[in-house]
Design brief:
With 191 residues, the protein is an all-alpha fold. The chain has a domain of 132 residues: Orthogonal Bundle (Tetracycline Repressor, domain 2), CATH 1.10.357. It contains nine helices and no strands. The N and C termini lie far apart (65 Å). The mean pLDDT is 90.
Amino acid sequence: MARPKEFDEDIVLQKAMQLFWEQGYEKTSMHQLVAHMGIHKGSLYDTFGEKKRLYNLALQRYCEQYEASINHRVEVSHSAKETIQQLFERAIREREDKPQGCFIVNTAVELSSHDAEARDRVSLNWERVEEIIRNLILQGQQSGEFSETLDSDQLASCLNNALIGLRVMVKTNPDKEKLSNIIKVNMSLLK
């Protein structure tokens, strides 16, 4: 008869996510994961499998949390423009209270060239965010915030690309004024 788990899987997965986010896949050892998660090595393997599977579960958790946060902003905002602005501003704020950079961007840079599962997870997240931006543009066009002559597909791709680029830049550039100016230029596309 199997012993009941002495830990909360959600809590320890969140801890693994934080460690992978801070250090990346390659720099995070199983020893570090066991210590950081506060569970035995056998429990880690029994519950999550090998390191790669744990990383993918942690990345999936991060993507779900990120998308839920964006969807929440969309639900509580009355302005499409304000919501898009908040998406960009969040990229700057993440530097202040989280590990450096975006876990999704970090994964894209570290693993996507040689790990199909990581690449697919990153691509799916970016597609979902682009779709949210596209819907916000359409909403803004319907409400009169944005010109109806704007091509919502092209603009959503452009803004999503700018958002991803900003999230990369945040990792290395502490100049908030420069980062804010990048946001202003991108927001000017929505007139």
